[in-house]
């Protein structure tokens, strides 16, 4: 099941992916500190994520449980990026990444490892 999450909704999900199941109040406190959102804004976005099927509300205490994993979200976002910006050609995305001049030696080594696993 593909659930399109917008940037603001991904911020909600990121808090849950990093912290596990926590209350909506805790999510609001974290996002107030991180991005300055009001409790109302955070609750509205949590509700939107619930309506989309990305979050399950558990009781008591309005505990938020992510139903979409970070890997699922990354896969969807990556597929959208490839389709939108590279006309569906994943190799062009990889070429674009490899063409960046600011890759660190660690990033280069991780990329080499990934490519070697494809063989």
From TrEMBL:
InterPro entries on file: BlaI_family, WH-like_DNA-bd_sf, WH_DNA-bd_sf
Keywords of the record: DNA-binding, Transcription, Transcription regulation
GO annotation (BP), single: negative regulation of DNA-templated transcription
Gene Ontology MF terms: DNA binding
SUPFAM superfamilies, per the entry: Winged helix' DNA-binding domain
Keyword DNA-binding: yes
Entry protein name: Predicted transcriptional regulator
Upper taxonomic lineage: Bacteria, Bacillati, Bacillota, Bacilli, Bacillales
């Amino acid at each position: 099941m593909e659930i399109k999450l917008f940037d603001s909704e991904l911020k909600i999900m990121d808090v849950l992916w990093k912290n596990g199941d926590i209350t909506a109040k805790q999510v609001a406190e974290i996002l107030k500190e991180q991005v300055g959102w009001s409790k109302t804004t955070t609750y509205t976005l949590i509700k939107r994520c619930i309506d989309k099927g990305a979050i399950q509300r558990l009781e008591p205490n309005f505990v938020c449980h992510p139903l979409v994993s970070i890997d699922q979200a990354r896969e969807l976002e990556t597929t959208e990026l490839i389709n939108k910006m590279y006309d569906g050609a994943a190799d062009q995305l990889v070429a674009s990444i490899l063409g960046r001049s600011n890759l660190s030696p660690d990033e280069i080594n991780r990329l080499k490892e990934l490519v070697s696993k494809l063989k």
